[in-house]
Amino acid sequence: MSGKATAAWRRAGARAHALRLDGFAVNAGLVIGDEQAAVIDSGAGPTEAAELYAAVRILTDLPLVLINTHAHGDHFFGNAYFRAQGVVDIWAHAGAATTIASHGAEQRDLVLDVDPAMAAAKGPHTDIVAPTRTVGNEPVELDLGGCSIRLFHLGPAHTDGDLLIASGQVLFAGDLVEEGAKPQFGGSFPRPWVAALGRLIALGGSHPVVVPGHGEFVDMDFVRAQRDELRAAIEMCRVALEDPSTDPYRVIPSLPYDPIQSRHLLLRVRDTAGPQQK
Ligand SMILES: [Zn+2]
């Protein structure tokens, strides 16, 4: 396995690269400044993190900062490995940082097949390491020397703590956008997600290259299509939930997602409805 990832960096922009990790096809990112470099997401445990770190060191020997796009284990379970390499600053949205600190360990089963040591919490670098630096509703500019990156939040969407990273013309979108697989709705906020994608699309002129959380690079037309599909699916869920004469679950086969994600979407539309939604 080691070395497998090292040749696979894809150039997304002048200073921005992405590497597809094996386990969940997560796109880890790398932005290289003149004085430091930023790694975006750390992988599904120490195994992937070690491969990612080795790949990073092929492109740069600069000091690193790490950014977690959100609080799903395939994106942050490698934090302990990076900390052990001397990485001190680990950035995330404040909501994601809280979730990782308080509930991160509950996700270990996610990586049973990908990193059994991480799943079992046994062995080096398998502890849950929470972010040390947080972003709230105001964007944060990180100066990497010769260039900066912008860390920002567009409201609740895939989770309540999604962070996006802009580097020149490139936008790392985390799991707000997915290519090669449909979006994941467990724990999501469907209606605000549509609004967040609308804000993302509004940035389109500045960021022609979008690196999704998983899959191939996309453009704003792809994001717009994903937004429109989600908006239509939410409307179908709403109609199904508001009709007292039928079982709302009957809408599931009509939704454009697999049965599990369709069920998540239906329940999240129901459970996040109204003024209390985050
Ligand atoms: Zn996710």
Percent in helix: 25-40%
- Which value, in Å, is the CA radius of gyration? 18 Å
Largest sheet: 7 strands, mixed
- Cα separation of the termini: 41 Å
How many strand elements? 12
- Within the largest sheet, what's the order of strands? 1-2-3-4-5-6-7
Q: If you had to describe this structure to a student in words, what would you say it looks like?
A:
The chain has 278 residues and is an alpha/beta fold. Helix content is 32%, strand content 17%. It contains eight helices and twelve strands. The protein has helices at residues 46-59, 73-76, 79-84, 94-103, 116-120, 190-202, 220-242, 259-271, and strands at 10-11, 16-20, 27-32, 37-40, 64-67, 90-93, 133-135, 140-143, 148-152, 164-167, 170-172, 209-211. Strands 1-2-3-4-5-6-7 form a seven-stranded mixed sheet. α6 packs antiparallel against α7 (220-242) and α7 crosses α8. It is globular and about 65 Å long. Residues 1-6 have low confidence and may be disordered.
Can I get a quick summary?
This protein is of the alpha/beta class and 278 residues long.
Q: Can you tag this structure with a few keywords?
A:
278 residues, alpha/beta, five-stranded mixed sheet, globular, binds zinc ion
Write the layout of secondary structure elements.
Blueprint: E1 10-11, E2 16-20, E3 27-32, E4 37-40, H1 46-59, E5 64-67, H2 73-76, H3 79-84, E6 90-93, H4 94-103, H5 116-120, E7 133-135, E8 140-143, E9 148-152, E10 164-167, E11 170-172, H6 190-202, E12 209-211, H7 220-242, H8 259-271
Parallel strand pairs: 4-5, 5-6, 6-7, 11-12
Antiparallel strand pairs: 1-2, 2-3, 3-4, 8-9, 9-10, 10-11
Helix pairs in contact: 6-7, 7-8
The structure holds zinc ion.
